[in-house]
Fold this sequence. Notes:
By secondary structure, the protein is α/β, with parallel strands linked by helices. The chain is 48% helix and 12% strand.
Amino acid sequence: xxxxxxxxxxxxxxxxxxxxxxxxxxxxxxxxxxxxxxxxxxxxxxxxxxxxxxxxxxxxxxxxxxxxxxxxxxxxxxxxxxxxxxxxxxxxxxxxxxxxxxxxxxxxxxxxxxxxxxxxxxxxxxxxxxxxxxxxxxxxxxxxxxxxxxxxxxxxxxxxxxxxxxxxxxxxxxxxxxxxxxxxxxxxxxxxxxxxxxxxxxxxxxxxxxxxxxxxxxxxxxxxxxxxxxxxxxxxxx
Length: 238
């Protein structure tokens, strides 16, 4: 029997994409219309943003712990969080969590290593791109990180919070993400991580200047594997 998945959500669009991916892709291995049991809980994104903007990662952790207690009480056997930025609080969470977690950046790092990438560009919020989440996950695998410059980090952050998390996807912003990828490619990146769980909703892989590592869908696929017993969790208890 597949294990019950708990989703600790943060922003709606990314969490919905992760949930839909699990439900859409699990039938290929579980049978028609089948997927693991899933429970999702989220506090309002505004609650998270108060702590993120002030650099209060303990406050972020408390929200994540509140959610994981609820999904665990509903029967979830392990947890995922389809939000890259809040993983800066991950180590403050896993030691106090009653159930194990998959770590989104470690899932991406595993896939990057499997594909043989040596240097990854990172697209995401300002807090994510300027934080340790991806450098810490990629360094043990010998994979370097290439970050957008400050102007691009600020503009991406604005697009994410003013458009993408609100379900607004414009052609202008789509083209802009491709321009950022072109600049990362010129600086030596051989692939790019969509390290905001909403960015996969606007970037078209067939138009992208670099190969894509879609953190949202990779996490969903890792959760399916974990639920079916084919993959160990990348954080917390085994």
